């Protein structure tokens, strides 16, 4: 499933 | 079940899949010959158009850094609204929220790492056991009964006995976003005074020697402490409670409702804790101003 993140970061590799 | 999107590079428009979307960027899956540093536009199925730069690439997966931070909740809400009413389901949302977990062994303070309608991933000071029944109470949400489905070290997957309605989750997420002091919100607002701590690295900040009255919560226990040192990353205090190394505490400071910190050092009655997420320098300044 697509995950939403409240953090501001670019998701890491 | 990944959400589709479209990538637009010049006149080329190509379908992609969105693995993860956060305020600062996204992880996408697309079969497009692209390079790191390349600019493109991501169009979500809900209509948002987001400009970004490719930050990294691995096979068909790549990380996109948005030019401007976005607010995730309206996108999430539009996504929900676009689903047929009776089958409306919230996606999994990554978050770092303090919570209490009740197990057969007692109550502990844990950190909710992600949450969906059907369950949550929690980080616990001590490993939980598979099939253990628990009651999870994220800060600001009601107690939720669940069962531990899997454990990997201190991370555990808890499935909820009854689904949590999105009507409860969305307002909770909104409240968490609005309450701050989420570092990314303060950072996005910009215009902070340029202190050394701003990078979050605290390279020269030796901490301030204080005699700051504060409180600690661990599970259902709570007590007063005197904070002697406080930086954006650490808090040091004296206390006579028998606490184990690695325990996650909730540090309540003047003007700051509570912030999770883990005990990293014990020297007699002196405890050093590391915040699980650094305090924003502006928050530290506010705490010190109120002290």
Could you please describe the fold and organization of this structure?
The complex is a heterodimer of chains A (13) and B (291). Chain A has 13 residues and is mainly beta. Chain A has one strand at residues 3-5. The radius of gyration of chain A is 8 Å and the shape is flat. With 291 residues, chain B is mainly beta. Helices cover 14% and strands 49% of the residues of chain B. Chain B has four helices and 18 strands. Chain B has helices spanning 72-81, 166-179, 183-189, 281-290, and strands spanning 3-9, 12-22, 25-29, 39-44, 49-58, 61-66, 92-103, 106-115, 119-123, 133-138, 144-152, 155-160, 208-218, 221-230, 234-238, 248-253, 256-267, 270-275. In chain B, the strands form three sheets. Chain B has a six-stranded antiparallel barrel. In chain B, strands 7-8-9-12-11-10 form a six-stranded antiparallel β-barrel. The radius of gyration of chain B is 21 Å and the shape is globular. The interface between A and B is medium-sized, with 13 and 42 residues. Strand 1 of chain A pairs parallel with strand 7 of chain B.
List the SSEs and their pairings.
The complex is a heterodimer of chains A (13) and B (291).
Chain A: E1 3-5
Chain B: E1 3-9, E2 12-22, E3 25-29, E4 39-44, E5 49-58, E6 61-66, H1 72-81, E7 92-103, E8 106-115, E9 119-123, E10 133-138, E11 144-152, E12 155-160, H2 166-179, H3 183-189, E13 208-218, E14 221-230, E15 234-238, E16 248-253, E17 256-267, E18 270-275, H4 281-290
Antiparallel strand pairs in B: 1-2, 1-4, 2-3, 3-6, 4-5, 5-6, 7-8, 7-10, 8-9, 9-12, 10-11, 11-12, 13-14, 13-16, 14-15, 15-18, 16-17, 17-18
List its traits.
heterodimer, A: 13 residues, mainly beta, B: mainly beta, six-stranded antiparallel beta barrel, 4 helices, 49% strand, globular
